[in-house]
Amino acid sequence: MKNVRATTNSLLERLPKLNYLAITCGILSFKGRDETEEGIDTKLAVHYYGRWRFINDLMPLVQKAKDAGEDSKVLTVFAPGAGGKIDRDDFGLKKHFSLTAAALQGPSYNDVMVKSLTKRYPGIAFCHASPGVVRTGLGSRSSSWILRSLGTFTNILLYPVSYSEETAGENMLWAMLNSGPGASRRNDKGDDIGDSRYFGSEEIEKELWEHTEEEMRRALS
C-alpha cells in the first residue's frame, strides 16, 4: 500500500485532472496465505486493497474532470458476479484463509466497492468488468512453477475460447466508455449484467468500507 501511495502522490502532483482511470492488475498463485509486509494477503492486496487505494487516492483528479463537465469514468477489470457470499466476520480472510475463499471474496469485494464509490461520488461512472479468458503471460510469470510450466500449454488449449490482449482491451474500453454515471457490472463483451450474483447489501457496503479504511490506516502508519 505504501508503494501505491507513492505512485498516486506522484500522479496527484503531475496531473491536473483524470478523465479515465482503469485498474487491471492481477496475480496468479497457488500459494496459501502469503502476506505483504503490511500483513495483507498478496492476492487480496492485488485484487482488491491495492485497487481501492489507487482509486480513492486519485478520485480528486477524476472529480475535477467531472466538475469540468467532461467524461469521468473508473474501471476495475476483474470478475463481476464470479465471487461468493461475503464473510462479514472475516474481511481480509485473516481467520479462515483458503485459496477458494480468496478467489471468491476478491470479485465480491470489487462488486461492493463500485457500489460504495458511486454513493460517495455521484455523477461519476464506476464499472467492474470481466475481461474473460485472455492470452497473457500471467501464468508464465506466476510464482508457482506448476502454473509457469502450464502457461503456454493452457494458452494453446484455451485459444478457441480466449481473447487476444488487443481484443480484450477493446472490449474493456468499450465497457468503460459506455458506462453512465453510477455503478455497473459488465461481462467480457462489455454488456451490463445488472445485479446478477451480487452478494452485497447496504450493511456489507458500510462494513467492508470501514474495514478497508482501517486496513489502510494500519498499512500506511
Task: Explain how this protein is built.
This protein is α/β, with parallel strands linked by helices. The protein has a single domain, classed as NAD(P)-binding Rossmann-like Domain (Rossmann fold, 3-Layer(aba) Sandwich), CATH 3.40.50. The chain is built from 6 helices and 4 strands; from the N terminus they run H-E-H-E-H-E-H-H-E-H. A 4-stranded parallel sheet has the order 1-2-3-4, with helices on both faces. The mean pLDDT is 93. InterPro entries: Sec_Metab_Biosynth_Oxidored (IPR052228). Keywords: Oxidoreductase. GO terms for molecular function: oxidoreductase activity.
Query: How many E-type strands?
Result: 4
In total, the number of domains comes to 1
Largest sheet: 4 strands, parallel
Q: Report, as a whole number of angstroms, the end-to-end distance.
A: 11 Å
Mean pLDDT across all amino acids:
93
CATH topology, which one?
A: Rossmann fold
The appropriate CATH architecture is 3-Layer(aba) Sandwich
Low-pLDDT runs: none
Q: What is the highest CATH level, the class?
A: Alpha Beta
Shape: globular
Query: How are the strands of the largest sheet arranged?
Result: 1-2-3-4
Strand content: 5-15%
Roughly how many Å is the radius of gyration?
17 Å
Run of helices and strands: HEHEHEHHEH
Keywords: Oxidoreductase
GO molecular function, one term: oxidoreductase activity
